[in-house]
């Protein structure tokens, strides 16, 4: 019942967050949410501080919003016995997603002619400036999110990578792998002693096919891994430990349970979104609460819509299943304020326009 999820960037973390939000709401658990000055992230990219948590959401049972990991501050906030989990993604695929999603926010990406990932990876030092605003999105983002120094290179200092791995292993009971999402959820369910229904999901915050590379050429993938060598070292280690964990649990058992999860998920999606549930562009989603935030005109983030004419508790559950992060965070904050007797404005929660995904912070506030 007490879970801290380190939501890393572009790793399917929003889908995991939604699973945790819905579990918390069903069981009337308190979810730690950011103070309004931090918007819907815990003042990322600054080092996490318990002061960034809205007082109406303390003490929490669940934490699942973006932050830069700080072990001491999180342990100060979360109760003893909290289970810590996170998720990693293959670094080349993750970097392609970061480059696309944050192209208008990260100066290193904005400098690249024609927004070309290939041009950036051909000579990243020509565009990248360490310590620059949002530089962490352009270099070893996983290491940064985990509280590490994203400027270190395992080629120059192998001991640093080994030390960072040890620190992660000391804290996190499970490191999930985005490429094996359903298998990861099986391990998460077993770790937390949840039911299979507790980890059913709808894909959230995913890009349209037109906004991503269908396949990353091998040379480009090698260049992305070389530039993000610290992330590559983290991923390779935890991918290996993930499969050792699957083997201990019984690979055939995990695969059978993952298959059951997929079948149950398909039934749920059909029940909620029609016999042929499809991800839609935001412009085609009539339900305002389900319209995902769009990072730029060049990137289409997809979502689900509810069939017209539905109402009742089942529809409410379907709404939450597909609700984007910004709207769900706002809704939960208002709900927890009411529970705590905090006075709030009377306007509808879910009609608030989504804020920008990242709060612009003054230079020099990266919290290295």
UniProtKB/TrEMBL annotation:
Its main location: Golgi. The keyword Acetylation does not apply. It is found in: Golgi apparatus membrane. It comes from the Eukaryota. It holds the Pfam family Gal-3-0_sulfotr. Keywords: Glycoprotein, Golgi apparatus, Membrane, Signal-anchor, Transferase, Transmembrane, Transmembrane helix. Residues 343-368 are annotated as: Disordered. Belongs to the galactose-3-O-sulfotransferase family. This is Galactose-3-O-sulfotransferase 3 isoform X2.
């Amino acid at each position: 019942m007490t879970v801290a999820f380190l939501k890393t960037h572009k790793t399917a973390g929003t889908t995991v967050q939604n699973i945790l939000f819905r579990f918390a709401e069903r069981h009337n658990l308190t979810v730690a949410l950011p103070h309004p000055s931090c918007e819907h992230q815990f003042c990322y990219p600054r080092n996490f501080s318990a002061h960034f948590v809205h007082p109406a959401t303390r003490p929490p049972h669940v934490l699942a919003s973006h932050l830069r990991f700080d072990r001491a501050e999180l342990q100060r906030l979360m109760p003893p016995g909290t289970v810590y989990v996170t998720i990693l993604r293959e670094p080349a695929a993750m970097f392609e997603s970061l480059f696309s999603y944050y192209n208008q926010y990260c100066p290193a990406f904005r400098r690249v002619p024609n927004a070309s990932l290939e041009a950036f990876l051909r000579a990243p030092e020509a565009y990248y400036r360490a310590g620059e605003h949002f530089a962490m999105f352009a270099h070893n983002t996983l290491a940064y999110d985990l509280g590490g120094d994203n400027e270190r290179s395992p080629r120059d200092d192998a001991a640093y990578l080994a030390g960072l791995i040890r620190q992660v292993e000391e804290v996190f009971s499970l490191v999930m792998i985005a490429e094996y999402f359903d298998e990861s959820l099986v391990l998460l369910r077993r770790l937390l002693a949840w039911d299979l229904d507790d980890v059913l999901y709808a894909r959230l915050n995913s890009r349209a096919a037109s906004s991503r590379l269908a396949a990353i050429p091998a040379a480009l993938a090698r260049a992305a891994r070389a530039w993000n060598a610290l992330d590559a070292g983290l991923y390779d280690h935890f991918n290996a430990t993930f499969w050792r964990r699957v083997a201990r649990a019984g690979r055939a058992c995990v695969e059978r349970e993952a298959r059951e999860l997929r079948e149950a998920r398909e039934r749920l999606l059909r029940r909620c979104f029609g016999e042929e549930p499809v991800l839609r562009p935001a412009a085609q989603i009539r339900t305002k609460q389900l319209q995902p935030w769009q990072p730029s005109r060049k990137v289409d983030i997809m979502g689900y819509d509810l069939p017209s004419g539905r109402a009742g508790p089942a529809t409410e559950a379907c709404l939450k299943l597909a609700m984007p992060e910004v709207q769900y965070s706002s809704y939960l904050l208002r709900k927890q304020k009411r529970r705590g007797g905090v006075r709030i404005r009377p306007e509808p929660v879910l009609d608030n326009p989504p804020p920008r995904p990242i709060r612009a912070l003054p230079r020099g506030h990266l919290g290295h």
